[in-house]
Amino acid sequence: MKNRKLSKSELREAGQGYLFMSPTILILLMFIIGPIFYAIFLSLHKVQLLGAATYNFVGFENFARIMDDMRAKVALWNTFKYVIIVVPAQTLLALVLAATLNAGLKGEKFFRIIYFLPTLTSSAVLTLIFMWMYNKNGLINNVLDFLGLPTYNFLGDPSIALNAIMMMNIWSTAPFFMVIYLAALQDIPDSLYEAAELDGANIFQKFWHITVPHLRPVTSFVVVMGLIGTFQLFDQSYIFSAGSGGPDNSTLTIVLLVYQYAFKTLGTMGYAAALAFILAVVILSATLLQRKFSKEESMY
To answer: Are residues 159 and 12 in the same domain?
Structure first.
């Protein structure tokens, strides 16, 4: 079958369509597609950007270097540990909060606003507030001391520092996903719960056999968004450790390490790009695996 030639009117219509799309296409090229290809280019070179920029092609040497970089291994482990703990915790907390608010409690709107406030607050501001709370003489240790419980050096103990960031982020990110769950919960037909109640199902059985299955597509979305966000942990770790990833590299994440190599160390911009590329591959792989093993079809 021969390809049909477009008429003048069709060509004019297509041209008008591309003209309207041109701002979006330019933005994509300048801020997404272009930087991606430039990052790939940098990852294959040893780069010196001060003075006259120089690019020395080294092939996959930057990627091979990652295998021998102990700080990169520590950063990857810290990031994976953070993701494995925070994503399930924030998802479960968001679901519990949404189910509680959807139960018809008095003052639901008031509690919804209170729960959602952390999401509206700047991440940097939240981190500074929690730093004050985590301080040796801060609110949390004062309360623990008043109750006769042991106090902790949240900011200076390598075994606790990352956990402190986890607790802060679980508390601050769960309300955003709570709103998503709450909207999905209100779409579940009441007739299903009424029929289950007539069959003698208790509240936990109704939750497990009706609520959870109907929220499966939403849970898949929440987990994917959680994975993407947690793998990119940077600002809280940077502020907590003043950019060092301390104490003893316990809060060093892969994004913070990329920042250090890109802007704090001379001649390692190409290596930083290689680390960023590896992180992108990890995020993409984790997202695809999650989507593969989750059933996204609706139960309606």
So the answer is: no
